[in-house]
Amino acid sequence: MRQKGILTVISGFSGAGKGTIVRELLDRYDEYALSVSMTTRSPRPGERDGVEYFFTDREHFEEAIRQDGLVEYAVYCGNYYGTPRAYVESQLAAGRNVILEIEIQGALKVREKFPESLLIFLTPPNAGELKRRLEERGTEDAEAIARRLARAAEESEGVEAYDYIVVNDNLEECVEEVHRLVGASRRAPVRSSRFIREIREELQDFVKGVQS
Ligand code: 5GP
Fold first, then answer.
1. pTM more than 0.85
2. What is residue 20's DSSP assignment?
3. Phi, psi (5° rounding) for residue 47?
4. Poorest-pLDDT segment among 4-13, 107-116, 136-145
């Protein structure tokens, strides 16, 4: 059964380990492609333009919005973040599961525009662990960590909109669980509409053949 890829949104509290899980999925399985977002946030040490993000300024970002070049975009902690459209559409058409690692407002817009998308929310086992991971990462100062924790509290209100919650307690188990969920979701009728339509049409042709 040839299908388009699954548009897979992976969200989670800042510090939930999304980046690591996504990298593992890409390393292990060829069927995934990662969408690189555009952002107006400054690069963290070690981040490269075009790899972690396309780093840009407000003016260019707003131009991309006007040109309808983004699948979705959101403002997060004072910066724009958005998903470039062309890559997502071409990879889905080629049958690859495109991963969007995005926050909740963007996830909800994706669900609106692509009802057959799959929304997965990653979370550490508890809030204390979340705070500890953010502090250990050492890439944000105390004020930025406080902002991210406040945002996590807000985002926790929207988790019910997701299809699945995966607890990232153990990296190995978490990667495989996400992979299994994507695989299983391929079997949902909403994502196999072409296959179902084709079978229906063939059956109707058989029925007509019998009747005539
Ligand atoms: P960070 O600054 O930690 O890299 O990302 C901040 C938040 O923005 C994370 O929750 C991340 O998933 C989200 N994000 C990254 N790219 C996009 C995007 O293209 N669209 C939206 N809506 N959120 C994004």
1. yes
2. H
3. -80, 140
4. 136-145
Our mutation pick for probing the ligand 1 site, out of 39, 55, 112, counting the most ligand atoms within 8 A of Cβ, is: 39
CA 41 – CA 94 distance, rounded (Å): 31
86 Cα–ligand 1 center, Å: 18
List % helix, strand, coil for the chain (3-state, nearest 5).
50, 20, 30
State in Å: Cα 206 to ligand 1 middle. Answer: 50
Distance (angstroms) between ligand 1 centre and the Cα of 79 equals 9
Ligand 1 pocket, residues with Cβ under 6 angstroms: 14, 37, 41, 72-74, 76, 81-83, 101-103, 105-106
- Using only C-alpha atoms, the chain has a radius of gyration, in whole angstroms, of 19
- Band the pLDDT of 61: cuts 50, 70, 90: very high
Q: Select from 62, 60, 56 the least CA-distant residue to 39.
A: 56
